[in-house]
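Quick one, tokens below. Sequence please?
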């Protein structure tokens, strides 16, 4: 058996840290590993600390594969019937894989577990400059569609 550990310090990390209008902490980092603009695919790492900071509320708009490399990834789902966040997260642990095809039904947010989290993502938008995410505000209004071109331009400008 081959034993290995990913050296995450070798990558350029883009840090996202701010508070939303309701005071919720957004705190995560991303490192883009590879992308293909023509095919509309991207591979990246995301890491969350153990400070409770999440990613912005979003909905994936394309097929997404995720493997948790270290720690736990906690997902909080929005319940449109009660217009609240579900209290209990779905949890993906080290070594677990998730896959979704096409657009997510509802927005969600992701947070690192007690020790934080490092996760590998592959997203496939199936064509040039696809919409990869939709971002939502505190009132659950869709405020932005984010394309692959936008992700790459922002990463290159801020790392």
């Amino acid at each position: 058996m081959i034993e290995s550990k990913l050296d995450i310090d070798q990558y350029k990390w883009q840090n996202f840290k701010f508070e939303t209008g309701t005071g919720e902490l957004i705190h995560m980092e991303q490192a883009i590993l590879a992308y293909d603009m023509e095919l509309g695919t991207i591979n990246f790492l995301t890491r969350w600390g153990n400070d409770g900071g999440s990613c912005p509320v979003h909905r994936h708009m394309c097929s997404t594969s995720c493997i948790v490399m270290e720690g736990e990834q906690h997902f909080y789902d929005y319940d449109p019937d009660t217009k609240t966040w579900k209290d209990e997260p779905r949890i993906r642990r080290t070594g677990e894989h998730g896959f979704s095809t096409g657009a997510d039904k509802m927005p969600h947010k992701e947070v690192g577990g007690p020790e934080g989290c490092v996760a590998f993502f592959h997203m496939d938008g199936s064509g040039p400059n696809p919409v990869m995410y939709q971002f939502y505000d505190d009132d659950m209004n869709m405020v932005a569609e984010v394309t692959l071109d936008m992700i790459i331009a922002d990463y290159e400008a801020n790392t």
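The radius of gyration is 15 Å. Residues 78 and 85 are 5 Å apart (CA to CA).
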